[in-house]
Amino acid sequence: MPVATPKQFAAMLDAAQEGGYAYPAINCSSLVTINAALKAFADQKSDGIIQFSTGAGQFASGLNHKNTVLGTIALAELTHRLAEQYDVLIALNTDHCRPHVAPDFLDPLIAATAERRARGENNLFQNHMLDASELPLAENMELSQKYLKLCAENEIILEVEAGVVGGEEEGAAGTEDTPAEDLYTTPDDMMAVYDALSPLGRFTFAATFGNVHGHYKPGAVKLRPEILKQGQDAVMGKHGAESEFDLVFHGGSGSTLEEIRETLGYGVVKMNVDTDTQYAFTRPIAEHMFKNYDGVLKVDGEIGNKKAYDPRAYLKAGEIGMANRIAEACDDLLSTGKSIAGQV
């Protein structure tokens, strides 16, 4: 099945909201990591989201060029082709585009979708993220309004963020020294986001509730999922049940299963998974190198072992490790077995 159409992606979000589950959104940067995500979603019979950061686009375009847009388009087109082999729905998203990068990243990607639509083809991307959380909220919303209008014209859903996610992700968000109070989106903030954006088109919202990018031991990150409920209650209390946000959970590494599941009850329909899958990919490769040291290296003038140093040998191990971790995320987020492929 090819990548989801705009109608199918909207139905995915609706199904997750109504069913109390969320989609793992997997950051990928190569053919191998894309295949790991596709395998996991298909094995789990879960629809899912594959997303690319600006850094992934640079990496994919080649060391001599670092062409963020070209690399991102190449990854997206590759996913469109590979997804045809599977019977689950896959949506494509871009991750953490900061304000100063948006004109040179989001604008040409939205234009690429517009060009495909003019040819009668599916959208290149179903979802783009504008992370303007580094700006004061009023400026954030002004820029978000601009990009939501552009996205809505092309049936693209825009992901926005208000508040600060601690740590660092592709140069975005806060730092580990971010004041604690800045890590929590207030009900007033959530009301302001709804009032600014809801008339313009559909969007998803990464509200912050103490989440931090990076990897931390359980208990190190002080999450307050009830922040999401308070904001949702405020908005729905004024505007009705139909105003419920489609929320996104960033910085989930180190969160307990109980905390993750609690957010599902408050409207989280997408959870970014990156740090954990990076480790899950690299760990078996490291094991391969340690176990096959004298095979991957030509030690003391020997010839090594071609089967050991063939990149396919260890990349396959990495792909399996990453796929297993994504399957775990599907289970954690309760999306396993709930694909709506063929229903929309």
Give the spatial strand order of the biggest sheet. 3-2-1-8-7
Q: In percent terms, what proportion of residues is strand?
A: 5-15%
What are the low-pLDDT stretches, counting only 5+ consecutive residues below 50?
none
Label the overall shape.
globular
Q: What structural category characterises the helix and strand content? A: alpha/beta
- CATH architecture designation: Alpha-Beta Barrel
Structural domain count: 1
Q: How far do the termini sit from each other?
A: 12 Å
CATH superfamily grouping = Aldolase class I
Q: What's the average pLDDT?
A: 93
Overview of the molecule:
The protein has 344 residues and is an alpha/beta fold. It has a single domain (6-283), classed as TIM Barrel (Alpha-Beta Barrel), CATH 3.20.20.70. It has helices spanning 6-19, 31-44, 54-61, 68-83, 102-118, 137-153, 187-197, 226-239, 257-264, 275-291, 293-296, 306-309, 311-332, and strands at residues 23-27, 48-53, 90-95, 127-130, 157-162, 203-207, 247-249, 268-273. The protein has a five-stranded parallel β-sheet with strand order 3-2-1-8-7.
